[in-house]
Specification:
This protein is α/β, with parallel strands linked by helices. The protein starts with 5 loop residues before the first strand and ends with a helix. It contains eleven helices and 13 strands. Helix 3 crosses helix 5. A hairpin with a 4-residue loop joins strand 10 and strand 11. The strands form two sheets. Strands 3-2-1-4-13-12-5-6-9-7-8 form an eleven-stranded mixed sheet, with helices on both faces. It folds into two domains: 192 residues, Isopropylmalate Dehydrogenase; 131 residues, Isopropylmalate Dehydrogenase.
């Protein structure tokens, strides 16, 4: 009998909302775990997990082994408090990911789902990374990776992410764009889409308007798109940025390649935040951050540590459950898809 897919859930910073959303997600997923559909290994800070369980009046058990288990990322050295930035929290955030990568490379788990960490705490602990993506690239010896945001059928990858807007045109090279398209195409196959339709968002307004607003779309993007089409891929564009996401939402495409961080993040997050019109507050967030180009599967919640509400029992677990489901789908399709 084939074993159920097993995922490692890293806690992120244990003083943030990670422990709480993990407990809530595991409670909601318990029927599926009991039915043998999946197996979860929580990796992190046991005391923080037990504290979150107490806040929620939850009795769910996290033994050391079994289909729902907990692995301590390291030895607890200092007491942690929800909502407070501490080097100990950053240390545990790193150790959890380090263990998860090792377990994935050994074949003990099929993918990694990460709860949010805090960059300041991570650096205070001596780990000089900008976040999960850089850390995972270093741990897996991967030169570069690509960010894909997903919310339902809205799937958006990025040619560039955390760079100044003025640097984006210089980074839009044919090689970088082609690699982003190739990896996005592979990700859609991993998600079970047999012939992905991918749109390339234009960098400039109206795709440059014949060169009036910039020549990158005509001189860089268009030739790469033509090359991809000749290679048998279903690639479209450059499609103006003010309409491409409407067409994606209308399911004319399966994914969009965005040129820069905000171009891709704004439409996905606008749909992912659930706003209460009476109070103007958001009370739920759906969406997943998927790192492409790594030798391991990694998905993540699309929100931060939320120190202001950590330990209060009100954090929403929807994004974590969506990230788990995406990781399961990726793992399943990678196992069943024939080798190229």
């Amino acid at each position: 009998m084939t074993r159920a897919p097993r995922l490692g859930i890293t806690m992120g910073d244990p003083t943030g909302v990670g422990p709480e959303i993990i407990v809530k997600a595991c409670r909601r997923l318990k029927p599926r775990i009991d039915a043998g559909e999946l197996s979860l290994l929580v990796i992190g800070h046991r005391s923080a997990l037990m504290a979150a369980r107490a806040v929620l009046n939850e009795t769910l058990a996290f033994p050391e082994t079994g289909p729902l288990a907990m692995l301590e990322a390291g030895e607890e050295r200092e007491k942690l408090t929800f909502g407070e930035i501490a080097p100990e929290g950053g240390r545990f955030a790193y150790l959890a990911v380090e263990k998860a990568v090792a377990l994935t490379q050994a074949g003990d788990i099929d993918g990694i789902v990460t709860a949010p960490l805090n960059k300041e705490a991570l650096n205070l602990a001596g780990y000089k990374f900008a976040g999960h993506t850089d850390m995972l690239a270093a741990l897996t010896q991967t030169k570069s990776s690509i960010m894909l945001l997903a919310h339902g059928d809205m799937r958006v990858s990025h040619v560039t992410t955390h760079v100044a807007l003025e640097d984006v045109p210089k980074l839009l090279t044919p090689e970088r764009l082609r690699r982003t398209i190739d990896i996005t195409h592979q990700a859609m196959l991993d998600l079970g889409i047999p012939r992905p339709r991918i749109a390339i968002a234009a960098l400039n307004p109206h795709a440059g308007e014949g060169g009036l607003f910039g020549r990158q779309d005509a001189e860089v993007s268009a030739p790469v798109i033509a090359e991809c089409v000749r290679d048998g891929m279903d690639i479209h564009g450059p499609v103006p940025g003010d309409t491409v996401f409407v067409k994606l939402r209308a399911r004319q495409y399966d994914a969009v390649v965005a040129m820069y961080h905000d171009q891709g993040h704004i439409p996905v997050k606008l749909l992912g935040f659930n706003i209460d019109p009476a109070t103007g507050r958001w009370h739920a967030l759906s969406g997943v951050n998927i790192t492409l180009g790594l030798p391991v599967i990694r998905t993540s919640v699309d929100h931060g540590t939320a120190f202001d509400i950590a330990g209060k029992g009100i954090a929403n677990e929807d994004s974590l459950i969506e990230a788990i489901d995406y990781a399961l789908l990726l793992a399943a399709n990678r196992k069943t898809r024939p080798a190229a």
